[in-house]
Amino acid sequence: MCDHGNPRFSHCTFSGNDHGLRCGLYEGSVTIENTILAFSTDGPGLVLDEDYVIPQLSCCDIYGNAGGDWVGEIADQLSVRDNFSADPLFCDPQQGDYHLWNCSPCARGPCGLVGAYPVGCTDPQAIEPDATAHALADRIRLQYANPNPSAGSSWIHLVVGRSVTAQRMSLEIFDSAGRLVRMLREETPAPGTAAVAWDARDSQGLRVAPGTYFCRLKAGDARDALRLVVLR
Questions:
Q1: What is the Cα–Cα distance from 77 to 83, expressed in whole angstroms?
Q2: Both ends of the chain: CA-CA distance in Å?
Q3: Pairing of strands 140-146, 154-160
Q4: 124-230, which class in CATH?
Q5: Phi and psi at residue 189, to the nearest 5°
Q6: Sign of torsion, CA 96 98 104 105?
Q7: Number of C-beta neighbours around residue 5 at 10 A
Q8: CB 124 within 8 A of CB 145
Q9: What is the number of other CB atoms lying within 10 angstroms of the CB of residue 91?
Q10: 73 with 48: CB under 8 angstroms?
Q11: What digits encode the pLDDT tens for the residues 181-206?
């Protein structure tokens, strides 16, 4: 929380915030750039006092916050100045490791590194998303999985734009070694939003081992990836 002043946040990572003000970050006249605000457990990623000037955000990823991401006073800044909303794909946040997987949309793109930490773990090339995945919101996008982490089933939420509706779309689950675990969906999609369930089982119907998995959405040359964590 910042109550006064005109600070600048650059290359910062805010994650898992559960502040009593019900927000991921509380600030007024501020500049925020190349910063991640993710997975707030109580409120949206960014809350502003009504008396404060709306901040200018650029190259920021706001994603997975309990009360919404690009909402309220900053809603019109999504997709402006290279702002985006995608799973940052932290290496192991449960163990305090907020480095990025090499397939993270925050690891590369028009802004360079987004967040405080560079790539710290490597994901197989087979499930690496398009380098400009966050710029493909009008094509395909994996929004989030709920719950995630999960000890049972998760609902995977996705968006399909009109530009890919004539192409074959696949939704697949891979393990951390890049092996295909299960094809969840393969079809020619209709435009709009959808939710697909994964019950943490492989293509043989067997329960997968606890650990990190990746969901890949692909249509034509557009790809996006989402990290899933399966608990015991």
A1: 7
A2: 36
A3: antiparallel
A4: mainly beta
A5: -80, 160
A6: positive
A7: 9
A8: no
A9: 21
A10: yes
A11: 999 999 887 777 788 899 999 999 99
Q: Are 41 and 20 in contact (CB under 8 A)?
A: no
The values of phi and psi at residue 218, to 5°, are -140, 135
| DSSP 8-state code for residue 115 | S
Q: Tokens 């600030």 identify what position?
A: 27
- Read off the pLDDT of residues 45-78 as tens digits, 9 standing for 90 and up: 887 766 667 888 999 999 888 888 888 888 899 8
Q: Domain coordinates of the chain in residue numbers?
A: 1-122, 124-230
Using CA atoms of 22, 23, 28, 31 in order, give the dihedral in degrees to the nearest 10.
170
Give the tokens for residue 18. 């559960």
Give the model's confidence band at 30: pLDDT under 50 very low, under 70 low, under 90 confident, else very high. Answer: confident
Sheet containing strand 211-219, edge to edge, reads: 180-187, 169-175, 211-219, 222-230
Q: Which of 2-6, 132-136, 151-155 has the lowest mean pLDDT?
A: 132-136
Highest mean pLDDT among 19-33, 42-56, 172-186: 172-186
